[in-house]
């Protein structure tokens, strides 16, 4: 049953209070409220916006590194306090809409702690999807949250700050690898989880955004999937970032359907390369990005073919 406006407690003003004890109590009360499925069935958009603005400024006023770290973790864990996955994703959408809207107003002294908050929410999002056993509708909704208008990886929304999209690219694979460090009950659908970056790469008009996506997401995962061949000096291995192995991702991934079971690295790499080629071939892909994606595909294939030739000699 959908929650009415009257069902939502007036927590926003307490979350944004200048008094730390009041804010702390409000966060605890929020966790209790969200964990009550009947109350949180569907928070109205207007109330969700007010709630997230209060949460944003609750974090804004946190000081001292240990306090900030603890609060960032507590806020991200609110996603897991909600037992119903669709409701959790609805709450997550509110987070990203608020972050995109407020990001440019964050001053230099506070930026690092908001980078940390974003990292915590990326991690919690993967834990949420893992809890849902990588349910396909949940993964699809997650991708839509990131890439739809108002989302942090939306390629056509001029309001999205480049630094926010860059940071998500920086931490995305790292946080997925952490979540998979405790062997999950079902493998993660790697190709599906990379979908937001395929959307971003296809549609972004910004050269730097495409370059950053290629260097922090596509190239590292392709290099990791190639395994021991990453010691050679091919075009895919110019940056220190590519030394990351993402071993937990490699050991616990499938292509798109967890029920099909884990697949080997070679098949995963082939699938992701094919996805890059297919996205580049789509009619809606920007011409400049199409050429770059084809170039990435060709470089990765040449790298792979060169490795095969070496192994045959």
Automatic annotation (TrEMBL):
Listed GO biological process terms: rRNA processing
Keyword Chaperone assigned: no
Chief place where the protein resides: nucleus
Pfam families: Nop52
GO-annotated cellular components: nucleus; preribosome, small subunit precursor
Record-linked InterPro entries: RRP1 (IPR010301)
Name of the protein described by the UniProt record: Nop52-domain-containing protein
């Amino acid at each position: 049953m959908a929650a009415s406006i009257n069902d939502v407690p007036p927590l926003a003003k307490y979350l944004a209070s200048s008094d730390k004890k009041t804010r702390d109590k409000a966060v605890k009360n929020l966790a209790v409220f969200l964990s009550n499925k009947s109350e949180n069935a569907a928070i109205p958009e207007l109330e969700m916006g007010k709630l997230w603005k209060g949460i944003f400024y609750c974090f804004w006023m946190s000081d001292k590194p240990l306090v900030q770290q603890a609060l960032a973790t507590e806020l991200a864990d609110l996603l897991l306090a909600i037992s119903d996955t669709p409701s959790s994703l609805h709450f997550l959408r509110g987070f990203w809409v608020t972050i995109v809207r407020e990001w440019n107003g964050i001053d230099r002294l506070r930026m690092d702690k908001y980078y940390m908050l974003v990292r915590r929410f990326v991690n919690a999002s993967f834990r949420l999807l893992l809890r849902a056993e990588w349910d396909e509708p949940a993964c699809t909704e997650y991708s839509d949250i990131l890439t739809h208008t108002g989302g942090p990886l939306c390629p056509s929304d001029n309001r999205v700050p480049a630094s926010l999209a860059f940071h998500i690219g920086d931490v995305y694979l790292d946080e997925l690898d952490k979540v998979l460090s405790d062997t999950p009950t079902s493998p993660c659908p790697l190709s599906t989880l990379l979908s937001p970056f395929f959307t971003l790469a296809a549609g972004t008009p910004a050269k730097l955004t495409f370059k950053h996506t290629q260097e922090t997401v596509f190239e590292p995962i392709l290099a990791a999937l190639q395994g021991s061949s990453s010691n050679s000096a091919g075009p895919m291995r110019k940056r220190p970032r590519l030394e990351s192995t993402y071993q937990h991702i490699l050991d616990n991934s499938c292509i798109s359907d967890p029920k099909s079971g884990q697949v080997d690295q070679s098949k995963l790499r082939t699938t992701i390369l094919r996805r890059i080629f297919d996205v580049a071939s789509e009619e809606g892909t920007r011409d400049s990005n199409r050429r770059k994606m084809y170039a990435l595909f060709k470089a990765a294939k040449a790298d792979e073919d060169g490795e095969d030739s070496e192994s045959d000699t």
